[in-house]
């Protein structure tokens, strides 16, 4: 847990699960990921929906089957005649037990990445853990008050919301919603203003139970259709290639805003941003894509 993360190349990462790029050591550090876990079907449970107490309410999807938390993956594929959109998303990962590592000098933030997005005027959605916001409150506030960006929830602890998720410690079902709300509270405390009711499961791992547990919170779960492979990557060109090969109109790309575990992401962006613009893509935040997907509200 204290040891440095293993290095994996993007090719191997892709081979691992076609999605998630994790070593056993990295598991608790950064569940980059793309689990293909699917919610169960056919539940008769009816879970009452209430609204999250404080966050503003941008567009969300209607509840899924049996009132479960809805899951968004990508926007509708637009016809060639319209401007295609792509949402770059950045997981700001820090787990609840990484405080000692941060105290020892490990950096879970990535200010250069944020600067590049600002310089290039690229809208983006940050999926932040509550623990990250506590460690870097000034950065959380700065990101969360920049109209370019929106801050979504990646749990407080970055522990798993399913029984098995790349070796991450597990959040009991009875604590899942509280873990999510604790992150929203951490954002508010840091001064984040552009908070959105979207939740990304650590490791991308979810099931019917976790979708049910979060349903009263009124969030939309956000997955992705393009895995950047930036977790523990050392070759920025390989990351850029993987993104550029994967993006289609309406895509959601998962990347990381965590220097220690995704050190090449900012460099990869310097290739990805101009190339996607050259192809005619418009960068948008996830909220715009959810609206396009037929959101309510
Ligand atoms: Zn994560």
From TrEMBL:
What the entry lists under Pfam families is as follows: Polysacc_deac_1
Chain segments annotated as coiled-coil in the UniProt record: none
Q: Which domain of life is it from?
A: Bacteria
Q: Which InterPro entries match?
A: Glyco_hydro/deAcase_b/a-brl, NODB_dom, Polysacc_deacetylase_ArnD
Statement: the UniProt record of this protein carries the keyword Secreted: no
Question: Would the keyword Signal turn up in this protein's UniProt record?
Answer: yes
Alphabetically ordered keywords of this record: Signal
State the residue spans of region: Disordered. Answer: 36-80
Show where the NodB homology domain sits. 84-284
Protein's recorded name: Polysaccharide deacetylase family protein
The species is: Streptomyces longisporoflavus
